[in-house]
Specification:
The chain is mainly β. The protein is built from no helices and 11 strands.
């Protein structure tokens, strides 16, 4: 079993920055890819960014140039640096772990954190 715990969410004004962290624990799974998703009320879960041992990083167009994903060498911890935040970035942010080399859909991730709330005020 893999446990993921997000942290770093909070309330920030538009134009501000936040850095989210996700710590993975458990010996049952060695991550191949880790990702960040978000989900706003009434919306489906949205892919934001992923980092793969094989292919590196990828970003959704909506956050490209503003968000940066990174991890430690063992991929035990993944980060999401969020800059130039907008009110439409308000959502619950989730980290996820999957076995594929590259994936941007919810269905291809096996483990999820409980989420951390990010609220951007205008």
């Amino acid at each position: 079993q893999v446990q993921l715990v997000e942290s770093g969410g909070g309330l920030v004004q538009a134009g501000g920055s936040l850095r989210l962290s996700c710590a993975a624990s458990g010996r049952a799974f060695s991550a191949v890819i880790m990702a960040w998703f978000r989900q706003a009320p009434g919306k489906e879960r949205e892919f934001l960014a992923c980092i793969s041992r094989v292919y590196g990083t990828d970003y959704a167009d909506s956050v490209k140039g503003r968000f940066t994903i990174s991890s430690d060498n063992a991929m035990n911890t993944v980060y999401l640096q969020m800059n130039s935040l907008k009110p439409e970035d308000t959502a619950v942010y989730y980290c996820a772990v999957g076995p594929r080399n590259w994936a941007t859909s919810v269905a291809h991730y096996d483990y999820w954190g409980q989420g951390t709330q990010v609220t951007v005020s205008s």
